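USER: My hope is that you can spare some time for a protein that puzzles me. I am handing you a single protein, as its sequence and its fold in token form. Walk me, if you will, through where the backbone shape changes along the chain. The protein I mean follows directly.
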Amino acid sequence: MTQVFFYHGAADRIAAACALLGGACAKKKAMLVYAPDKDVANHLDRMLWTHPALSFVPHCAANSPLASETPVLIADSLEAITQDERLMNLSREIPPGFSRFQSLIEVVGQEEADRTAARDRVKFYKDHGCEVRYFDLNDR
């Protein structure tokens, strides 16, 4: 069963995602990022070049020829991707096929629309038997 981790209260959702991705990369954990919104994917791509300030998080698009060598993949679709260990969702929707992943990371900002969508996802995941854990980014 998929374990779901909600990191909520992020003042800057993309910066928080970058910090989490940087931590995963430092621990040598590959991560697939679901970002179907092109603006979100581009913003994440740009930020990963500079955040955290003194390091670089290797990343590329999931359909890149370098994808098999890169720990962080950014995807706008999950159908053709075989990685099924860790997924970060930067959409306000339930990622298609989420249950095939061992863990799912949700990053939730402070905007009301983001929080409302996150509450709906929490209910969905719980209704489908997933264990949901919460981490308050306001405490950091």
Summary: The radius of gyration is 14 Å. Residues 3-139 form a domain with the Rossmann fold fold (CATH 3.40.50.10110). The chain has a mean pLDDT of 93. DSSP finds three helices and seven strands in the chain.
